[in-house]
Specification:
Elements (H helix, E strand, L loop, with lengths): L10 H11 L1 H19 L3 E2 L12 H12 L6 E7 L6 H15 L4 E5 L5 E4 L2 E4 L8 H11 L5 E4 L2 E10 L5 H11 L4 E5 L1 H35 L2 H24 L3 E2 L6 H25 L4 H28 L7 H29 L14 H8 L2 H18 L17 H13 L5 E6 L6 H16 L3 E5 L1 H13 L8 H10 L2 H7 L6 E8 L4 H13 L8 E3 L1 H35 L3 H24 L9 H26 L5 H24 L8 H36 L4
Parallel strand pairs: 1-9
Antiparallel strand pairs: 2-7, 2-8, 3-7, 4-5, 6-7, 10-12, 10-13, 11-12
Length: about 725
């Protein structure tokens, strides 16, 4: 009597049995990897620089660095102190100087430009303001009034405000200076501004983001997935791989010594939100097989057989979307794209590696039934209605494309309720501007009347643009002292007089506008805003000025960010093109036919129109962060098409009756749950104090709704039409 042949085991059967035999060893390995990753996590360094918004190779950044090197200082901090009483009194003037002395004592402060000079020329003698009395207060106040805008004291709504300009020794000291100010000025109400301050506050916000947003996103996704799966324990299993992948990725970030910036802080959020897709599909189909009475090992094998190929493809396409970001001319964006793609890859590894280990010995699951029949709803729309609705989506969003603009600036990054935004807006309300830029120039002797007259003339032309609130230079200060002492307006033309006035000026005031050798000077320009048009108007005047050959150039963080704004459209096009090509090639290699990739690309193309149209309608600026979403949407949005097509092919090969109906039943709920999970998960970004993160959340809602809807209506309609003629999808 012959023995019955032993059924041949496929690769998925063998893998399931391997997991069952080695479960304890694999669990130990997972624990060790998690511990190593956690140790790497605590090694992460937080970067607060705005370099993330700047090009890697930047002409404007070189000018900015050149100016800071010339004047041996970082960018200024603007400190506005509020007073209830009139500071133009004996006690008030002494209090102003006392505050100046306190600020100078803070570690990292190079110099301080007080709201009024420490010594005031009375006749041709210098009076120490600390010795002011009722006898000479009138002369001191007259000097203050004569100096006009160069003395930063203002009265508004019955209160007095004094502005201190603090020059740090270097950029790294700004955070310590900010802490010192809070200690030294704790008895005063004060406001801080300046690009360096804006950067330093990023540290606090990144800490908030990293500790609040990923856990919130995880919580939101768990609740959405629980609706799909119907069991809490199974839901935790489905998101576990993405959570571990986020930990592993951050561990790699720490062990490799990479910085965590306002952009790369998104890596764990993207990993959790987008990496959870495979876990959801895996657990959903595993439980479906268990409910059909199959044992765990067989359920695992069939799950991998039915969705394994789709999981591999969706991982690769999502990674391709992030990898395309490496074409953007920003080191932080390249780093974010690289590590986010690693995170997505690790989420896939965890899905294939961790989930089988957890599920292979899982017991029975109790499910909460739902009466909501989602598959039938989308199935009813998968006809010509889908074609009409998809066309309407395109028609509705196309006009928004014409409203797109790239006008991002650092102030727009902070939400209106943040301390940073409130500080800057209060200083702007009182003094007109809070974020200066600079006009730099050089000459063998920067104090010569010829160079002074040229620069003063150029400053007048800049003021005529209507975009400049005020300009302060050493020439303005010398001109005002000249008028005060000699009754003569304008810059003195006699060298001896210039040298005399120069000797009367405080050293810290001189060094803020002229280098120690007297060969380089700069004017501080206070703008009405930081819009591209405002910055362009300055550049046009300076570039066209022919009154002097003084190596003129404008410098400041706003110009560096404007340079990125000017190139953002072309960089977006390159990134988008690369993402589409990578995804299409991956599908082509996987499917080995042209029809399936073309069908899969159609939903994502409609989604992209919706994405950019929504950005145009809502007034979102194209910037280094928001442009990432197009490439990401390509990689993520196409996942739904891949899962639907792969399941349809699987059921067709299995000889199922009406495979399209079976595909709808199996795929529609996980796809919709995944889309809602992504959108709701990224809703956590609305908690961020930065507008750019809220923009991402809004964009994700629009794109996931469109992408999932079109994938479950238009795509099935196209498949149905093709299948009815050819009876197969290869």
């Amino acid at each position: 009597m012959s023995k019955e042949p032993v059924p041949k085991l496929n690769i998925y059967d063998r893998y399931s049995m391997f997991v069952k035999r080695n479960r304890r060893k694999l669990l130990l390995l997972i624990i060790i990897v998690n511990i190593i990753s956690f140790l790497g996590l605590i090694r992460i360094h937080i970067s607060t620089n705005f370099d993330v918004f700047m090009p890697k190779k930047s002409y404007e950044k070189n000018l900015y660095d050149r100016m800071n090197k010339t004047f041996q200082s970082g960018e200024q901090l603007m400190i506005m102190v509020e007073f209830e009483n009139n500071v133009l009194s004996v006690e008030g003037l002494k209090e102003l100087l006392k505050i100046s002395d306190s600020i100078k004592m803070i570690k990292g402060v190079k110099s301080v430009i007080s709201p009024l000079p420490e010594k005031v020329p009375i006749g041709f003698k210098l009076l120490d303001v600390k010795e002011v009395s009722s006898k000479n207060i009138d002369k001191v106040i007259k000097f203050v009034m004569d100096m006009k805008e160069t003395v930063n004291i203002k009265e508004k709504d019955g209160k007095y405000y004094a502005m201190y300009i603090v020059i740090p020794e270097d950029h790294e000291n700004v955070m310590n200076i900010t802490k010192g100010l809070k200690k030294e000025l704790k008895s005063y109400k004060f406001y801080i501004s300046g690009n360096s301050y804006l950067e330093s506050k990023i540290f606090d916000y990144i800490l908030l983001i990293i500790f609040i947003l990923p856990p919130t996103a995880f919580f939101l996704i768990v609740n959405v997935f629980k609706w799909q799966i119907g069991n809490f324990k199974a839901t935790i299993f489905s998101v576990m791989p993405a959570g571990m992948a986020a930990l592993w990725t951050m561990g790699i970030l720490g062990w490799t010594g990479k910085d965590l910036s306002v952009v790369t802080v998104l890596v764990p959020i993207f990993t959790i939100v987008m990496g959870s897709a495979d876990g959801l599909h895996f657990v959903s189909h595993f439980l479906e097989n268990k409910q059909n009475g199959l044992p765990n090992t067989k359920s695992l094998s069939i799950t991998l057989s039915s969705v394994g190929r789709a999981m591999i493809m969706t991982t690769l396409t999502t990674m391709a979307g992030f990898i395309s970001l490496t074409t953007i001319n920003s080191q932080s964006m390249v780093q974010m794209g690289f590590f986010a793609s690693i995170g997505i890859g690790l989420a896939a590894v965890a899905t294939w590696f961790v989930l089988p280990v957890v599920l292979i010995e899982s017991g029975e699951f109790k499910f909460k039934k739902t009466s909501l029949n989602i598959s039938s709803f989308f199935e009813k729309l998968s006809n010509k209605k889908a074609l009409i609705i998809s066309s309407l989506i395109v028609i509705l969003f196309i006009p928004g494309l014409f409203n797109l603009n790239a006008n991002f600036n650092v102030l727009k990054m902070y939400k209106s309720y943040t301390e940073v935004r409130k500080n800057v807006e209060k200083i702007q309300e009182v003094f007109g501007s809070a974020l200066p830029v600079f006009l730099a120039y050089n000459h063998n002797n920067i104090f010569e009347p010829e160079i002074a007259n040229d620069i003063l003339d150029l400053q007048k032309q800049l003021l005529k643009t209507g975009n400049v609130q005020k300009i302060i230079s050493i020439y303005d200060i010398i001109s005002l002292v000249n008028e005060h002492l000699y009754g003569q307006k304008g810059y003195p033309q006699q060298i001896p007089r210039i040298l005399l006035i120069k000797r009367l000026l405080p050293q810290e005031q001189l060094l803020s506008f002229v280098d120690s050798e007297g060969k380089n000077g700069r004017s501080m320009i206070f703008l009405k805003d930081l819009e591209n048009n405002t910055l362009n108007s300055l550049k046009q005047v300076v570039d066209s000025y022919r009154g002097t050959e003084r190596n003129l150039y404008l410098a400041g963080t706003p110009f560096v960010i404007k340079e990125m704004n000017d190139s953002i459209i072309s960089q977006q096009f390159k990134s988008l093109t690369l993402a589409l090509i990578l995804v299409f090639v991956l599908l082509l290699l996987s499917q080995r036919n042209l029809i399936t990739p073309l069908f899969s690309i159609i939903p994502i193309s409609i989604t992209l129109v919706g994405l950019f149209g929504f950005m145009g309608y809502s007034g979102m600026d194209l910037n280094i962060v928001t442009i990432t979403m197009a490439s990401i949407v390509i990689g993520v949005g196409i996942d739904y098409s891949i899962h639907f097509v792969e399941l349809f092919k699987y059921y067709s090969k299995m000889g199922k009756n009406n495979p399209l109906e079976k595909t709808f039943k199996s795929a529609s709920k996980p796809i919709l749950a995944n889309a809602l999970g992504l959108a709701i998960g990224l809703t956590a970004m609305f908690l961020s104090p930065l507008t750019i993160h809220s923009y991402l959340a809004g964009i994700m809602w629009v794109t996931m709704i469109i992408s999932s809807f079109v994938s479950l209506t238009l795509l099935p309609f196209l498949i149905k039409v093709w299948y009815s003629k050819h009876q197969k999808i290869k």
